[in-house]
């Protein structure tokens, strides 16, 4: 008679026991849905590298936001595709800019939905970089801060609940906080893309927002994927400058960084499950190589397990329907 094994871990995976002892649960309350608002579109246009993700005109954005709220998604993050791009990205802070118009309309028409606005210049500049350029064609950090201040105020004026600077400019959070406060928007929060890597996983997004840099790359401001320790310093500076919440982006290839930021900070931590992470799963599913429903939920569970309080994900609609 063998006494081995006496510890049988499988007992914890039987029937109802498995659910009872589950450590991490994804709910629709954790999800933020990205929405692309397109000033040049008069009907929803599907993004070819992101099945079921669309660029919406302002009207369509309002309808879509309402559907997401009805599904139980508590927040959207808006990205703009402007009618015109130029060197200074002037449409980024226009009172009638596409994100400003959409924000006003969504806040007017959809109850209890948080509107987060992505705060960056790359969708608005003709060169596609996340700031204004100096004479040598490099992004001028400090000159860009003045633009970010204006964009933040115009988004707050339109009714944004939270602004989300995503350009990785040094000092952005402090500059934006100061600008919002001095214009009477001390209630508007800052969700900082504190730890944003220079990643190939943004490919489909750049299709969607038509925001690929026309020359060069973003490695001069976005982080080096090889580094994790520097992430701590990026997060620390943002906390010090007044961020309300931190973000790690992308999510799946950077779960170690997410865990690190979670453990070192007590502010909420968001993760951005980016366009490439979505596209990979959907493409493999189309080929019949894996199941998108299963792997999407598994991905989100792992991102939460690693430490995310909330996740920005293109799977928000699909997950909210199922959870
Ligand atoms: C803008 C921005 C990007 C993403 C979010 N905000 C693109 C970039 O930095 O090139 C990517 C999101 C995604 O891939 O889903 N700075």
UniProtKB/TrEMBL annotation:
Q: Cross-referenced NCBIfam families, in alphabetical order?
A: PRK09283.1
Protein name per UniProt:
Delta-aminolevulinic acid dehydratase
**Gene3D superfamilies documented for this protein:** Aldolase class I
- Positions that bind 5-aminolevulinate 2: 275, 314
Biochemical pathway: Porphyrin-containing compound metabolism; protoporphyrin-IX biosynthesis; coproporphyrinogen-III from 5-aminolevulinate: step 1/4
Alphabetical UniProt keywords? Heme biosynthesis, Lyase, Magnesium, Metal-binding, Porphyrin biosynthesis, Zinc
Q: Which family does it belong to?
A: Belongs to the ALAD family.
GO biological process terms held by the UniProt record: heme biosynthetic process
Q: Is the keyword Lyase in the record?
A: yes
**Pfam families this protein is in?**
ALAD
Please write the reaction equations for the catalytic activity of this protein.
2 5-aminolevulinate = porphobilinogen + 2 H2O + H(+)
Entry's transmembrane regions? none
Task: List ligand-binding residues for Mg(2+).
Answer: 234
EC numbers, comma separated: 4.2.1.24
Do the record's keywords include Zinc?
A: yes
Q: Outline the subunit composition.
A: Homooctamer.
- Could you name the active-site residues? 196, 249
Cite the binding residues for 5-aminolevulinate 1: 206, 218
Gene Ontology molecular function, alphabetical: porphobilinogen synthase activity; zinc ion binding
Taxonomically, which superkingdom? Archaea
GO annotations of cellular component type = cytosol
Mind giving the lineage of the organism this protein is from? Answer: Archaea, Methanobacteriati, Methanobacteriota, Stenosarchaea group, Halobacteria
Q: Where does Zn(2+) bind?
A: 120, 122, 130
Record the organism.
Answer: Halorutilus salinus
**If you read the UniProt record, what top EC class would you report for this enzyme, in one word?**
lyase
